[in-house]
Design a protein that fits this description.
By secondary structure, the protein is α+β, with helices and mostly antiparallel strands. Strands 1-4-3-2 form a four-stranded antiparallel sheet. The N terminus is likely disordered.
């Protein structure tokens, strides 16, 4: 016997409640920027959820050009990057968006990430996105913390005086795919915009 599909949850432009919720996003504690701000809305649309361990689950799928949302069995929504971080990807507004999962988790539980700050994994395990394992840190503080807990040594690429590490290059590429402007990425990592440009083009970054 053919099973009928559950009725969709429609989210058209005429839905006044959805418009009001979007207004809340802009002024509320989750007023992130770019792709992060967009994808955090999927939580309130019941398309994804973040559990108490910082894991992202897809709980809805869209049909009819994104207009209809159907519930689905929960499944993990993150993808692992080459350097071990978890990344969340999803279509939003007709575009594929990319965000680092730990940044989305932080903003869901704690609010905005201040300018000049990054999210550091306290125990050094970069796919452990439990809220209690995340903290705000500048890039310099992240480097110092990595040396302290043994994730980096103080030589070669991992020297504090080195411009960038392979992990940071991977983060830069994720931020660029998420829509962040190169000049802001350069400011965050304290390097030149031309170096960021070379990195996102896949050229040498040393």
């Amino acid at each position: 016997m053919r099973r009928s599909r559950p009725l969709p949850q429609r989210h058209g432009r005429s839905d006044s409640r959805r418009v009001a919720e979007k207004r809340e996003y802009r002024k509320g504690p989750y007023d992130a920027s770019g792709a992060e701000r967009d994808l955090i809305r999927l939580i309130y649309d019941k398309e994804i959820k973040i559990d108490e361990r910082g894991r992202i689950w897809r709980i809805g799928v869209r049909y009819n050009h994104g207009k209809d949302l159907y519930p689905c069995p929960p499944r993990r929504a993150e993808h692992r990057t080459r350097d071990g971080y978890l990344e969340f990807r999803s279509m939003y507004g007709g575009r594929r968006r990319y965000v680092q999962a730990h940044r989305l988790v932080w903003q869901y539980f704690y609010g905005e990430i201040p300018a000049g700050q990054t999210i550091n994994h306290i125990n050094g395990i970069v796919d452990d996105n439990r809220p209690t394992n995340l903290e705000l840190a500048t890039m310099a503080e992240q480097i110092t913390h990595s040396v302290k807990i043994g994730r980096r040594d103080a030589s070669g690429e991992n020297n504090n005086n080195a411009a960038l590490t392979a992990d940071e290059v991977e983060q830069i590429r994720i931020l660029h795919r998420s829509g962040m402007l190169q000049k802001y990425i350069a400011r965050q990592f304290a390097v030149s915009k031309s170096q960021i440009s070379r990195i996102v083009r896949g050229e040498s970054w040393g």
